[in-house]
């Protein structure tokens, strides 16, 4: 299970001037080299560079960052909170087979990877539905871009 304290990167633990220096290092791609205690250097791979750059940028904005492995298990309540729905509605989705889960004893657990996949599919479906609705309104001539409200 996730322990927030161990996975939370708190910007208040790093002096602001040090964060600013790090931010400058991550401005230019392929600029960061890692050096070990023996002086051996290696370039930070681009995929890690991009993640570290984002982490440093968010922390320089005084935002905490939580790192989460994709196989992290959520309780039904935590998963429902993440998706912004009631626990019972979420459990109904599990029972319908819309989101995979496993059991620990008698308790359902959902991996972050499966939760995130459902969220992406749900958002895609919503966007497609809204696009169809907007097209239908436009085709019916019910949308006026210069509408100024009641006058």
Task: Note down, in words, how this protein is organized.
The protein has 2 domains: 4-66, no CATH class; 73-139, Multidrug-efflux Transporter Regulator, Chain: A, Domain 2, CATH 1.10.1660. The protein is 49% helix and 14% strand. It has 151 residues and is an alpha+beta fold. The mean pLDDT is 88. The strands form 3 sheets. Strands 5-7-6 form a 3-stranded antiparallel β-sheet. It has a two-stranded antiparallel sheet with strand order 1-4. The radius of gyration is 23 Å and the shape is extended. The relative contact order is 0.10.
Write the layout of secondary structure elements.
Elements: H1 4-7, E1 8-9, H2 16-25, E2 33-35, E3 41-43, H3 46-60, E4 65-66, E5 73-75, H4 76-83, H5 87-95, E6 102-104, E7 107-111, H6 112-139
Antiparallel strand pairs: 1-4, 2-3, 5-7, 6-7
Helix pairs in contact: 2-3, 4-5
Please outline what is shown here.
49% of the residues lie in helices and 14% in strands. It has 151 residues and is α+β, with helices and mostly antiparallel strands.
Low-confidence stretches: none
**Count of separate structural domains:** 2
**Helix percent band:** 40-55%
Number of helices: 6
End-to-end gap: 58 Å
Strand order of the largest sheet: 5-7-6
Strand count, sense and closure of the main sheet?
Answer: 3 strands, antiparallel
Q: How is the quaternary structure best described?
A: single chain
Q: Shape, please? A: extended
CATH level-two architecture of the largest domain: Orthogonal Bundle
Please count the beta strands (DSSP E, at least 2 residues each): 7
CATH class of the largest domain: Mainly Alpha
Rg from Cα: 23 Å
What's the CATH topology label of the largest domain?
Multidrug-efflux Transporter Regulator, Chain: A, Domain 2
Q: Beta-strand percentage? A: 5-15%
Structural class by sheet pairing and helices: alpha+beta
Order of helices and strands: HEHEEHEEHHEEH
| Mean pLDDT across every amino acid position | 88
């Amino acid at each position: 299970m996730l322990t927030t304290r161990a996975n939370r990167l708190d910007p208040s633990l790093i002096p602001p001037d040090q964060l600013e220096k790090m931010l400058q290092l991550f401005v230019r791609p392929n600029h960061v080299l890692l050096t070990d205690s023996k002086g051996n250097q290696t370039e930070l791979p681009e995929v890690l560079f991009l993640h570290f750059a984002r982490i440093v940028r968010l922390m320089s904005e005084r935002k905490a960052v939580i790192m989460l492995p994709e196989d992290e298990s959520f309780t039904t309540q935590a998963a429902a909170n993440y998706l912004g729905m009631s626990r019972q509605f979420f459990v109904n989705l599990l029972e319908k087979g819309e989101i995979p889960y496993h059991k620990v004893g008698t308790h359902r657990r959902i991996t972050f990877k499966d939760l995130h996949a459902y969220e992406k599919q749900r958002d895609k479906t919503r966007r497609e539905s809204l696009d169809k609705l907007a097209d239908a309104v436009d085709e019916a001539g019910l949308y006026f871009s210069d509408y100024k409200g009641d006058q």
